Structures are given as C-alpha cells and as structure tokens.
C-alpha cells in the first residue's frame, strides 16, 4: 500500500533518528548523521540526508545532496571513474552528479510494496548509504585532488568503532552484504523483505 510522508518520518523516528521538517518544505525531512571517515565540503564530520516520498507513495527516497563540490575540480574524469567504482560496489546507493549545481550527491530509494513500509527497510538502505559514503570517501577525495583512482584507499571501520546511534545496528551492517548476495542481489533482497512482512501480517 502507498506510504505517506508522515508515516516515513514516524518510521525514522522509531529508529531513534532525529528528523526535522520545516514549514517551507513540509514534505521533505532532514537528518544529520555523524561520520567517522567522511567530511563535508566545510570539513565537518557529518552527512546531511534528505528524505521524501515519490511516485504517489510508492517510493521513499533518501539523498545526501551536498557530499562534494566539483567547482574548481581539475580531475573530473578521475572523479567520475571513482564514482562509478563506488556505485558499482554498493547494494542500494548510487553516487550521482548534479551538473547544474556542480555537486555530487548520494541517493538511495525503497520501492514500497503492498505490505507498506517497515522501519527495517529504512534501516537497511540507510545503513548501506552511510557505509558507501564512509568507505569511498578517501577514494573519491584522492581522485578529486590527485587525479588517480586508488581503491586501496577504501576506508574500513575500526573493530571497536560505534555506529551512528542505535538506529543503525552494527550486526545488521556486518551481515547485510552476505544476506543481499544470498537472496539474489538487490531485487532478491527486496522480495525477501516483502515476503517477510507479508508473513508477519498473517493471522
């Protein structure tokens, strides 16, 4: 069934995330999550994420619109190659170039099925988005500065590093890759989630 924007906000808050909604943009939520590897263009260890609903309630979008600025970047070809490498290595998230704004954003989405939206779906895609940004930040930043794509620079979290709040379960992040592969990739994982939710609703 279609999902409404207030329902999405409620699901995110159920994950103990702070979501703000302004009077100017009443259908767009905003979150700021602390990061360990990534730093925004101002050098702050924080990732700003927007959330909204598309396709008449059939798609929930999460986007980090200001990850990098391409203004003044001398090595755009290497940067684009690094972005392609990053996008091909994620499950749900994609690095997207906004040509007009000369900016790079990270975007992910959830297709809402007949069973509606469950907080666990948001948790999975948000965890994937955060992991993609954190992992590939050193690769992308180096490509922008040096014109070289060096995947060996990928960041991995320290074993004792805490994840962002209780909303992103560390065990879920560690098991997500294997689960997605076993279920047949992104589409298979989404079918698995939908089947699980449908089974939950059975009397």
Low-confidence stretches: 162-167
H/E element order: HEEEEHEEHHH
Q: Would you tell me the structural class of the helices and strands?
A: alpha+beta
Shape: globular
How large is the share of residues in beta strands? 15-25%
How much helicity do the residues have? Answer: 25-40%
Largest sheet: 6 strands, antiparallel
Mean pLDDT: 85
- What is the count of β-strands? 6
Q: What is the rounded distance between the termini? A: 19 Å
Word description of this protein:
Strand 3 and strand 4 form a beta hairpin. Helix 2 (76-88) packs antiparallel against helix 3 and helix 4 crosses helix 5. The protein has helices spanning 5-14, 76-88, 119-146, 170-182, 185-200; strands at residues 20-21, 29-34, 46-54, 59-69, 94-98, 103-111. A 6-stranded antiparallel β-sheet has the order 1-2-3-4-6-5. By secondary structure, it is α+β, with helices and mostly antiparallel strands. It is globular. The chain is built from 5 helices and 6 strands; from the N terminus they run H-E-E-E-E-H-E-E-H-H-H.
């Amino acid at each position: 069934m279609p999902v409404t924007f207030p329902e999405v906000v409620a699901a995110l808050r159920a994950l103990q995330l702070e979501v703000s909604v302004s009077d100017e943009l009443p259908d767009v939520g905003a979150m700021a999550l602390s990061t360990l590897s990534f730093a925004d263009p101002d050098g702050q260890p924080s990732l700003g994420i927007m959330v909204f609903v598309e396709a008449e309630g059939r798609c929930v979008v999460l986007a980090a619109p200001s990850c990098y600025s391409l203004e003044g970047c001398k090595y755009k070809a290497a940067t684009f190659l690094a972005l392609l490498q990053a996008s091909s290595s994620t499950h749900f998230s994609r690095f997207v170039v906004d040509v007009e704004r000369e900016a790079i954003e990270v975007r992910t989405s959830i297709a809402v099925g007949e069973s509606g939206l469950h907080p666990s779906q948001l948790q999975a895609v948000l965890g994937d988005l955060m992991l993609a940004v954190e992992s590939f930040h050193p690769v992308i930043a180096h490509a922008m500065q040096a014109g070289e794509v060096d995947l060996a620079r990928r960041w991995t979290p320290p074993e004792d590093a805490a994840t962002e709040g209780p909303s992103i379960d560390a065990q879920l992040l560690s098991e997500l890759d294997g689960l997605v592969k076993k279920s047949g990739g992104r589409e298979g994982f989404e079918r698995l989630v939908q089947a699980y939710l449908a089974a939950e609703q059975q009397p």
